[in-house]
Design brief:
With 142 residues, the protein is mainly α. It contains seven helices and three strands, in the order αααβααββαα. It has helices spanning 3-6, 8-27, 34-44, 51-58, 62-74, 95-119, 121-138, and strands spanning 49-50, 78-82, 89-93. Helix 2 crosses helix 6 (95-119).
Length: 142
């Protein structure tokens, strides 16, 4: 059996790396990687999210997420805020973070249009729905 032809994890990671490289290149003048851009744009939709809420939304473990948040915090793009529960804190975009997202958005729009032209909007939409379906169906597999 050829694991690389049958392993869903391998296929998804390989595809993810290929697509991430395209977005990373497109966003390079903003000095953001696609993973950072996605995190910041996601955070811009909410006033503040706790580490646990962000980790669940991103399907990431808290340790990895913390490592990804630290450079954004050092750069002044996000800040921590106190919560009612003193054991946790929440994260929110700063004005500088919102400004950088606004600066990078046209770059993202340009590459998104190219991807839509290459793959087709319907295919992209269907693929995202299928990937979300995979997340929903496999959330409890351990």
């Amino acid at each position: 059996m050829d694991i690389n032809k049958e392993c869903l994890a391998f296929a998804l990671r390989r595809t993810s790396r290929a697509i991430s490289q395209i977005y990373d290149h497109a966003l390079s003048s903003s000095k953001l990687r696609s993973t950072q851009f996605n995190l910041l744009t996601g955070m811009s939709l909410y006033q503040a999210k706790t580490l646990t809420e962000l980790a669940l939304w991103l399907v990431m473990d808290r340790t990895t997420l913390t490592r990804n948040l630290k450079p954004l915090e050092r750069a002044g793009l996000i800040s921590t805020q106190s919560t009612q529960d003193k054991r946790s804190k929440s994260y929110a975009l700063t004005e500088k973070g919102h400004a950088l997202v606004a600066q990078a958005m046209p770059l993202w729009n340009q590459i998104q249009e190219k991807i839509d032209h290459t793959l087709g909007i319907n295919y992209r939409t269907q693929t995202i729905q299928e990937l979300n379906h995979i997340i929903d169906k496999t959330r409890d597999i351990t």
